[in-house]
Amino acid sequence: MAKVEYRISDEPVGYIVYAVEDEKKLSITMLANSLKMEILALMKVIAEEGGFKAEPKDAIAFFLFEDRANAFVQREEIN
Q1: For residue 1, what pLDDT band results from cuts at 50, 70 and 90?
Q2: What is the DSSP string of 4-67?
Q3: E strand or H helix at 71, and its extent?
Q4: Burial class (CB within 10 angstroms; exposed 0-12, middle 13-18, buried 19+) of 72
Q5: Are 66 and 8 in contact (CB under 8 A)?
Q6: C-alpha to C-alpha distance for 71 and 49, rounded to whole angstroms
Q7: pLDDT tens, 5-14?
Q8: Which pTM value belongs to this model?
Q9: CB 6 within 8 Å of CB 19
Q10: How far does CA 5 lie from the centroid of its chain?
């Protein structure tokens, strides 16, 4: 299994985080399965960093501020 990489996209209204594994963008369900984590636990981590479920289906989270997006991708639980 390849390591999940996180990419932050700078959008006009905030920052969208994508999770990529083997060059494929993961949905939130796919990421939770890859991390062997419950979806609600993953959503809790997103919320703790001030994020929301992102609108694109292949995105993981939306953040208003870049520092919050970076804090999310650096969390131990998702790495």
Answers
A1: low
A2: PEEEEEEETTEEEEEEEETTEEEPHHHHHHHHT--HHHHHHHHHHTT-B--SSTT--EEESSHH
A3: helix 66-73
A4: buried
A5: yes
A6: 7
A7: 999 999 999 9
A8: 0.92
A9: yes
A10: 10
